[in-house]
Specification:
By secondary structure, the chain is α+β, with helices and mostly antiparallel strands. The protein has 22 helices and 16 strands. A 5-stranded mixed beta sheet has the order 1-5-4-3-2. Strands 7-6-10-9-8 form a 5-stranded antiparallel beta sheet. A 4-stranded antiparallel beta sheet has the order 14-15-13-16. It starts with 17 loop residues before the first helix and ends with a helix.
Length: 573
Amino acid sequence: MAGLGVTEGSVSPVFPTVREVLALDPVRRGAPRLVAGEAGLDRPVRWVHVAEVPDIATLLGGGELVLTTGIGLPADDTGLRAFIGDLAAVGVSGLVVELGRRYPTEVPRVMAVAAARRGLPLVELRRATPFVRITEAVHALIVDAQLHELRAAEEIHQRFTELSVEGAGAAEVVRQAAALAGCPVVLENLSRQVLAYDPAGENAELLLDGWEQHSRRLRPAGRTAYDSDSGWLVTTVGARGQDWGRLLLRWPARAGLGDGRPVGTPPTRLTILVERAASTLALGRLIRRDAEGLERQLHHTLLTGLLDHSRPVDEIALRARALGVPLERRHLIGVMVRLRRDTPAEQAGPGEGGPADAEAGPARLRDLAEAVGQALREAKLTGLTSPVDDQAVGILLALPDAAAEDRALAAFAAALRRRHPDQPARVLVAAGSGVASLREVRRSLVEARQVAEAARRDSRDLPVFRLPHVGLAGLLHLLRDEPRLQTFVERELGALLAHDAQHPREQLLGTLRAYLEQGRNKSAGAVAAHLSRPAFYERLARIGRILGVDLDSVEACLSLHVALLALDAIRTP
């Protein structure tokens, strides 16, 4: 009896297939033989129905496996054709005929031909078999499968409820969905860019290769649907009428027997799983409505991964490409856009004055990050961008070649000025050296950060600061971790720093800074320090006594100014 064995992986989601029913012991004792309809053996059996009347089709709802001895079937060919046609029309899974009572050795040929034409599995039982044993075995199989699905659904509900309560991010939700399903899962936005994925042990490169084009070919009907041609179960992600993405789970359909077309649908538990995961993602987005979008979160993850070596560069390249930012075979430039110190309290530095406005700072940084993103789009540039600390927004520009570097930086700076009109006074742009490999990009990002930190007090109106622009301050920033530089700072300024620590209401370091930054012009220094000239002069005299130096000496003041720049570099987070 060819083709009646149970193949590996053919277990139906909830209901057994005709093929599986034929492999059950009570059926096998009846010596089954498939007469017609081999292509329909993978149809699910929703129930087993025993019938001995020709008009039984009117009592069926589809999915039943009909058992009969044939006693009550029509005697003429026309009647038998109509009987088979009615069963096929109502959608039964198959027909099993026990030989011996009505048909001694085989079913009539007209039945076999009609069943083959309609693709209806027709099986003979060549030995007498109690039908009750068959119905008991099949129904037990169905109930067990349904209990398994209920347990799986309960586990899914519990797992995703926990994730919702914990405020899990999109990556964790996708990872858990893939682990529960044992299948690859991908979360994309409406532009078909991958926000998170888990290959479930498969090759991630193959999974995401040409993702946008592949995804756009998937157009399932309804919010949740299965595309059997591609093997993807797709559901829409969103809430309150605002859809923002799709969650896709790959469950390849089984190849059918005969015509080779894919058959079958994903188990019910997978549909429940993907919809529950989508609900968790949508709820998380609503809870974090004031937080960065998922794209920005992923940009932040990739940028910080490059800066602190927390992720392999191959993984970063793959995830960036899936996000629509290819980094391979590109000229890469690290850029930092940071807020200048723009209030007296901020200018005073740590320990020198009042703290900056804790509430306004994050808001300014969010505004700056938005302006940077808009400037990149306006300049038609591609790159990763995200805040990297509480003062700066980092960018990794990906350019087609090195020749485009100066032009791209100029276009970005111009677009940012249009978006951020007060840029020269409040914001500066710093760029590192361009590199040709993602493995070298950390050097460019770190250099850009160092240039930005060194230039934060530079009053020049430069569109983009590069390393040659920052001179001594840039050099000192590069040497900030050098013990000999730190020793020099302590030797030059240690006594004054100790005085300020003991007298928090009378900070003298800011006075010295104002004097030196104004070129030792005492009148200008008094204005910069917001002090009267007598008060300013008196403070300078005390500074001279504390440090034991002559503040009219050019050489002494030069040494102190270098020490102040070095102190700024050391104190920079």
